[in-house]
């Protein structure tokens, strides 16, 4: 197996002095999907925010591509190839789809003209965004906004893509489509860290599953070694 | 026509204040209540450069812009950055503005000083009305500034980033935007522009220490009428306030000018609480 791109060990983090995550470890490999599962409030999002640099680290280490992430400011981590798609489709609502995607490439430090050429990559992946490129992002449907959010992250040419509940609030048929797209992304060598509530849909696309509860890891295993999905589900329910 | 010119040029002064408020508001969702005082300092520096030192106009403009930008940078470090909460920043920037008023009084005294403009200060005739060259300059400056800012925010990556930041600063950080640096840059640029504005408003309003508080209030009214965060709104709001003020003073008597302005404000806010060009805040949870 290739070396992991991101190794998080014994991470303790939270909001300000308030601690929400006590001891979480996981790894993400290029071309593979690591799924982080756990019930509401178990610390999944908080862990992702710490990797992105939004939350302070109280303890443990985060090693990305052989270097420690902690000394790099949040906006600088994007330039290193860490892209984080937050839950809730947080696009820039008043700006057009095209402007949103251009902003996604902000960390490439290119002139606007050069960035415009990068847009085609995203339009190829999500053709509907090309049709809607001059519409305000806030006017799009939930699924399309999710595409804008993922498209923004991909504009930055990431090596690590963290997706926080990309299926949240979407219709079941759209969830399947989003998951298929996510699964296709790993073939380009992208390391993907996926947080999901929809256990079965997530395990379907996963290469490695880590379950956390109350800020601690309870299960961590390659998906091939999981013979009993019920055990994962139980762990996700805190049993 | 002369009355309309007077109203528009006075309105342009308010619009310039509103533009200053807006740049900081859009970039950091906070209010810089020292904006008008920055312009006041700009007017004083223009006076010193012009009259005391006898420098050429173009050097005076540059001097006013640099000095006020430095003051604005100090303001950001002292009264904005250490205070995390936007509501508290209302008070700290107001306090900084008061200090600037006091300093101006100490340095330049309390008498209004007449600031010269490019060339001679004489009236010209345009479309059947009379106006001074500096009045025309004010109107042109405010319109051009708004157009330039609008284009900048749509065309340049850093402009797009500032608009993005104003909607969701955390999402902006996650796109690799250095939010703190851009917010500071916005502050410095408002300072730079306030210096330029001070040079233009000086001939109209005179350089006087109490100028800040007079402009701060009317500029805020202009912004409230136009809608917070909208540059075109601030421009229109400024012109509305200026025109109403001049017309009320002419036809109703000068004691009615302020009264009429606030009447219009109340009317606008009753009909459209977000102002004429304001966007309704929508939040998704």
From TrEMBL, chain A:
Belongs to the ABC transporter superfamily. This is ABC transporter ATP-binding protein. InterPro entries: AAA+_ATPase (IPR003593), ABC_transporter-like_ATP-bd (IPR003439), ABC_transporter-like_CS (IPR017871), BCAA_Transport_ATP-bd_LivF (IPR052156), P-loop_NTPase (IPR027417). It comes from Nonomuraea cavernae. One of its GO terms (biological process) is L-amino acid transport. It holds the Pfam family ABC_tran. The keyword Manganese does not apply. Residues 6-239 form the ABC transporter domain. It comes from the Bacteria. GO terms for molecular function: ATP binding; ATP hydrolysis activity; branched-chain amino acid transmembrane transporter activity. Keywords: Amino-acid transport, ATP-binding, Nucleotide-binding, Transport.
Automatic annotation (TrEMBL), chain B:
The chain crosses the membrane at residues 6-24, 31-49, 55-78, 90-111, 131-152, 182-201, 221-244, 256-275. InterPro entries: ABC_transp_permease (IPR001851), BCAA_transport_permease (IPR052157). It is found in: Cell membrane. It comes from the Bacteria. GO terms for biological process: amino acid transport. GO terms for molecular function: transmembrane transporter activity. It holds the Pfam family BPD_transp_2. Its main location: membrane. It is a multi-pass membrane protein. GO terms for cellular component: plasma membrane. Keywords: Amino-acid transport, Cell membrane, Membrane, Transmembrane, Transmembrane helix, Transport. Belongs to the binding-protein-dependent transport system permease family. LivHM subfamily. This is Branched-chain amino acid ABC transporter permease. It comes from Nonomuraea cavernae.
